[in-house]
Amino acid sequence: MSLTKQKILKAAVDLFNQKGYVNVSIRDIASSTGISVGNLSYHFNTKAAILENIYQQIITERNSLLSGIQLIPTVKTIHEQLSPIIGLYQKYQFFYLDILEIIRANPKIAKLHRTHIQTQIQYIKAVLDYSVETGNMLPESHKGQYQHLSHTLWMLLSFWLHQQKIRAKEGNYLHEARSAVWNLVIPYLSDKGKKNLHTIYEKQYTISNPKS
């Protein structure tokens, strides 16, 4: 991808995050990039084309992050990778905050995103299954329990920003979202899983609050 295209996409993401997708025009993006509308149109003829390229960036970056968990989805690996994954929602927050308007106006992205959502839920379910196999989580108490939990975890991650914006809540977004994920999962952890998670938090506390 050319440097100009990269600059256009970065300017678009920044503007979409600041003003919302529907409130930004091609002219706004061109002005922010420092090029003419004609020059921008040479690279991307519509705002939808810009959005499609940004969406591909989101998927590429997400897949790269998830591959880090997929290798060995231990409690430690999941904990470490949750922050960059949650950070991705923050980096491209306009997409998740404006998702309904975006998919209504862009059928192509709507179709791609629905497929991607199913992939995400299936991925979360696979991680939960692995956690059961390794003894970090308890077996299902009834059929379909962890499929439903996978869906709930996806919803929590995807819509955490919404509740924060609606409530005008300040705070450490990454820390609070990650804590919410673990609070949802803890009741299903085995004694082994709880011990592993406690060890991780204990080490973090010791590092961030060293004894004098």
Write up this protein.
This protein has 212 residues and is an all-alpha fold. The protein folds into 2 domains: 1-45, Arc Repressor Mutant, subunit A (Orthogonal Bundle); 47-208, Tetracycline Repressor, domain 2 (Orthogonal Bundle). 78% of the residues lie in helices and 0% in strands. It has 11 helices and no strands. The protein has helices spanning 3-19, 26-33, 37-43, 47-71, 75-91, 93-97, 99-105, 107-133, 145-166, 173-185, 191-208. α4 (47-71) packs antiparallel against α5. The model is unreliable at 205-212 (pLDDT under 50).
How would you summarize what this structure contains?
The chain is mainly α and 212 residues long. The chain has helices spanning 3-19, 26-33, 37-43, 47-71, 75-91, 93-97, 99-105, 107-133, 145-166, 173-185, 191-208.
Sheet with most strands:
none
Secondary-structure element string: HHHHHHHHHHH
Shape descriptor: elongated
What is the CATH architecture assignment of the largest domain? Orthogonal Bundle
CATH class of the largest domain: Mainly Alpha
Low-confidence stretches: 205-212
Count of the domains: 2
CATH superfamily of the largest domain: Tetracycline Repressor, domain 2
Q: How confident overall, as mean pLDDT?
A: 90
Distance between the amino and carboxyl termini: 51 Å
**Percent helix:** over 70%
Q: What kind of assembly state do the chains in view correspond to?
A: single chain
Structural class: mainly alpha
Provide the β-strand percentage band. under 5%
The total count of helices amounts to: 11
CATH topology of the largest domain: the name is Tetracycline Repressor, domain 2
The number of strands is 0
Based on CA atoms alone, the radius of gyration comes out at 20 Å
